[in-house]
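Why does residue order matter? Because the sequence determines the fold. Keep that principle in mind as you read this record.
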Amino acid sequence: MAFPASLPFSGPSPKPHPYSNSNPKSFKFLNQKQIILLLHKSKSINQVLSIHAQLIRNGLSQDPFLVFELLRSCSKCHAIGYASRIFHYTQKPNVYLYTALIDGFVSSGNYLDAIQLYSRLLNESIAPDNYLMASILKACGSQLALREGREVHGRALKLGFISNRLVKLRIVELYGNSGELGDARQVFEEMPEDVVASTVMISSYSGQGLVEEAGAVFGGVRRKDTVCWTAMIDGFVRNGEMNRALEAFRRMQGENVRPNEVTIVCVLSACSQLGALEIGRWVHSYIRKYEIVLNLFVGNALINMYSRCGSIDEAHKVFDEMKDRDVITYNTMISGLSMNGKIRQAIKLFRVMIKLRLRPTNVTFVGALNACSHGGLVDFGFKIFDSMARDYRVEPQIEHYGCMVDLLGRVGRLDEAYDLIRTMKMTPDHIMLGTLLSACKMHKDLELGEQVAKVLEDRGQADSGTYVLLSQVYASFGEWKEAAQVRAKMKEAGMQKEPGCSSIEVNNEIHEFLLGDIRHPQKERIYKKLEELNRLLRLEGYRPEKEVVLQDIDDGEKEGALAIHSERLAICYGLISTEPGTTIRVMKNLRVCYDCHSVIKLIAKTTRRKIVVRDRNRFHHFENGACSCGDYW
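Structure:
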């Protein structure tokens, strides 16, 4: 048996250990305790390799205590492959050595290797201990190896380890991760009150979309720690309950439980989804106040939050403050700049990233191509698209083709966009075809719009948006009969147009509005402001784009229907609830209609307010009567 003194690791030479190959004689005078202390102090795999080489030279490579520490040190230095080699050459490894390597496999995410090594242990008739059982249960739970996990559970019962707290926790985790919530609950209820076990159950229920059940477990925990609160907040976020996530965070603050960086990222994610900029800013100030490290995890979440709340300058400030940046950081910033209409800055940052030799990913190219689309940069867009496979070995996916279709549609090259769809290697999805249909509406190409709609119908991909868009195409040409037929077909298919909903954050509270909403406590003031604006807009030359209304009703009714769109109500509430000069930020679940887009430009001009609207497609920054989208979205 022979081991190399070192492996071909790249990078700068490590600082030599006081007892390394350079001083072999002195190593002989160290006792076992001193050698173990040296291993504990090792900070790199090269230092561990030097010590291992000395153990081999001095006939100590089979000492079980030293091998155990070697395995742990390798795992600590992320060299699980070398740990496996050490184990392979160890004669008659005992349960502790098996445990050390299985632990290493689990901590490095090699769950299948851990399960296979456990099987070898059983074949060698070595009895596992409770620590090993807990470790292998974690591997089974992480690998979703339910069958193997049940076998380990059975063996734990047989060996009497089931009373061990860690073993029980891992069993609850195993069943929870595998979706066997009844089994998880049964083991959980056998345990005394335990905040960690409760946290596992909360995460298990949330992972299966059972938020109320998770909330019931959470409510039963008398002393909630940071991890427990975070699990509940994360559960709300993962299940789209953003308002409840923020409310839970407020209660957490009220109970003086300090959040950790995972909590912070969860809350920032909720702010991103809701467009809750003020709450996001408060979280950022909290990070500064308590000197939470602006690492990649937190920094990327902050950039995403500010970008998705339409405050791109604040996002860029965080980007500039970050000491370390990875590909995700650049991707997030490029995408944020693109969706907020900062086209030149997005392209510039993409070029900087390439110059720094950071390898772009699928997400990078989506951000860069979106920037080209929003800026109408056809030639540069094709240059980036063609470079993907050629220069970076990134095969274009459906979303990249979608960007190119959007880019060609924006500049009116509809036939080229349709040819690209027909000649690409993959089947187009309804989003891509919907993008082209929208371009047909914008450029008033009824013939191609009908073709695209037929393709969607024939493939069973037509949704309510398809019918609404086609109906709008007909309506824009005054073809009311055809528009009505499309609506009738939509009704026959059992589809309903998704109702528009707009939200605005005022004084750290989210206010939501529907079409013609009269539920808000300030409804009288809101509608009074709306009437006032309508009068001002007419003086500015506003004429309603009545073709946006699909119903074949008289002009007066159409004007009335347009005037009470949800985003207008949200903006009116913002105007009466905030100080003059304050930026108004609105989120809408659907694409902003052409009439509202024209109206908001005039509102921004007459009120001298900056208005930021985030719709389904992108951000619109309205200022001085213009929009950042260039009137194409």
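The first strand starts at residue 501 and ends at 506.
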